[in-house]
Amino acid sequence: MAPESDSAPYAGHLTVFFASQTGNAESISRNIHEQALEKGFKSLHFVLNDFAKVDWDKEECLVFVVSTTGDGDPPDNSTKFWRHLRKLKGVGLTKAKFAILGLGDTNYDNFCQTAKRLDTRLQELGASPFYARGLADDATGLEETVDPWIKDMWPALAQIVISTSSAQGSPQPQTTKLEEEIVKDIIEQQEHDHSSHITSEKTATTAPAMDSVVKETGAVDTLVEGVKGLSVAAGLTSAVPAAGYHIDVDFSTMANHTTLTALPRVPNANLKITNVETTTTAPTGKQAKLIPSFIQTPTRLMSAKINSVQCLTPETALKRTLSVEFGFDDDLDYSPGDSFGIWAPNDDSLVRGVLAALSVTDEDINKLVKLEGEDIPTHLQPVHSATLLDIFRYSVDLTTAPKKANIRLYADHATDAAEKQKLMFMASKQGVDVFNAFRAQSPTLLDILHTFPSVKVPVARVIETLPPMQPRYYSITNSPLAKHGHRRWSCAFNVVAYELPEGIKRRGVCTPWLDELSSKVPFGKTVTTGFADVRLPVFVKPNETKFNLPSDTTTPVIMIGPGTGVAPFIGFLEHRAEQRKIKKRLVNIGVGSRRQHLDDLFGDMWLFFGCRHRERDWLFRSQMEEYKQEGVLTELHVAVSREEDVPNSGKYVQDLLRKEGKRIWNLLDKKGALIYVCGDAKGMAKSVNDELINVLVEYGGFEKTAALLELNKWAQEKRYLRDLWA
Ligand SMILES: Cc1cc2nc3c(=O)[nH]c(=O)nc-3n(C[C@H](O)[C@H](O)[C@H](O)COP(=O)(O)O)c2cc1C
């Protein structure tokens, strides 16, 4: 097979390989190759068995699109390659950077086995991935993963192409039009990577970049330790089953289609629910409130009590923002900038509504059961003795909009012909617009069962096909150096509750739960006593972003965090205030080797904060002003978006960055300041990024594209740190 290439200008070299049994991987890989050529890359395209046509020792950038066939086997047109790969020894592929897109089907036992094996083998041979592996599932539709995976691969690819060329070139690269495009992609990529990082309510993952397209689970494997026996507050809202909303969408286009195609396969039935002991009744009273032992978290699960809750906003504010302090019996090891996870249960009335709609009796809800079966999802495997109530509270996600495969499953269990037809249509390629309109209303499982009441799915099928429950993550807003700091964590968040244009009320999982647990503290007030005697399941989030204060206290920091994005910076400031106190004591008693002025020991701390109205949502205002007065906070810049003519201000944080551009550049250039950005990934982070580029251009003398590259370099060097959420 001759390589396909063209005479595009040299801009990095890419080789796309495929292994395909029925043609999917081949056509997807061809598409990647063609797009690469269009983007100006020099690209080659080969079937894997033609591996010898390229010099593997010299290859620097490889993309593989491989399917799995048989019983987890590689396609026939790659067997020669696999034989060769098995024979290779050592780590001779250290130059090679690769990306793998696997195609498979979760209805088969060995999902995407070829891609997984290839990944492992290439790394054993010394190659390294430049982009996270994508695993596309034919059961739900390959395009769901393939399209975003390809789209987001370009900036990742551009990053290695650029770093190769700039390593060889001058420190201030002469950038081409292509590079300019690539650099824009990098910035977008960074936003994408970070957008899944931390949220004020939505689930967050710190899994590899591109988490949104990598459909693997099972990263959590540390089992619960030492928390059994503590009472936990389950969903407190109400024990009355909710009824669910009717989701109204227009099915008129259904009449135009007699044939439905690309219907996802119904996932295999593996799960069996067995009674643990027929005579055993579930625990009651305090016993019934234990933190279930089947919760799996990435770090040790701990139990927290609520110490205090402050409602930071008045009634007139658009959002209800709470600051909650949790207390612990044991010492915690953390740094300001770290985050923690809370394992919140689904709302109790939703859980009971779902169980009622699935025809589970009140008696059965509370019986102890065991989940068994070969090949059941990892998050269900530790359930050896739990009530269905707890399984639905803590193990499964009831609120994320359904995937097509779920809709297809519900269609199979609809007894009413019209309902079945509608569900099948939504699951098909032809019904994609209706499916999207349906999903846009964020239907819970209860809403689906309410809208299609003839659907009677066995409980085991529901449990094994729902996504796993995810913890919610929050930035820590306090310092371990403060009084009792090692025994408490604080966080700040907006209570997520809103209404859709259709009049449907939606709410988050964790934040309304915390609000209710603390009996909805009145607006603007702080409550420190009278909380229910309950413990909350929490754990430290592994810190992968290094979003922490620099160890050298003289390094200046520029903190940009409007709204609840200010949360980690409040922790930074408390920490610095405590560091200053400690130093002051030491200097005063003469322990300091020199009696230095306190300010010389600490670098500048500049904070850029943004709110709508100073009186309504200037969060942590008094703390900020105090820190400013004490000299902890060197500069405080507050943007106000909904008030006219605020002196020395602007509407948004980026406006203030522009105003202070020259001084910011000096702090960056002369004193090596670090930049921290926290908050909304889409609007704010993008505008701040643009403004920082302007600062580099206007005051640093960079070409625009060189400024983009410089900023990208800073991000890699952890000099420009971002903690963003979608
Ligand atoms: C006979 C057969 C066996 C398959 N076995 C597996 C398997 O073991 N694991 C898997 O993840 N997918 C399996 N699949 C699904 C394919 O990998 C998937 O449909 C893919 O899109 C096919 O891509 P291709 O056309 O490039 O071969 C199998 C498909 C067929 C038809």
Secondary structure topology:
Blueprint: E1 13-19, H1 24-38, E2 42-47, E3 61-67, H2 79-87, E4 97-104, H3 113-124, E5 128-129, E6 134-137, H4 143-168, H5 177-195, E7 222-223, E8 272-275, E9 296-297, E10 302-311, E11 321-327, E12 339-342, H6 348-357, H7 362-365, E13 368-372, E14 386-387, H8 388-394, H9 404-412, H10 417-427, H11 432-439, H12 445-451, H13 459-465, E15 472-475, E16 488-494, E17 497-499, E18 505-507, H14 510-517, E19 526-527, E20 536-540, E21 557-560, H15 567-588, H16 598-601, E22 605-611, H17 614-617, H18 621-630, E23 635-640, H19 653-659, H20 661-671, E24 674-680, H21 683-700, H22 704-716, E25 720-725
Parallel strand pairs: 1-2, 1-3, 3-4, 4-5, 4-6, 21-22, 21-24, 22-23, 24-25
Antiparallel strand pairs: 7-9, 8-13, 10-11, 10-19, 10-20, 11-16, 12-15, 12-20, 13-14, 17-18
Helix pairs in contact: 4-5, 5-22, 6-12, 9-10, 15-18, 19-21, 20-21, 21-22
The chain binds flavin mononucleotide.
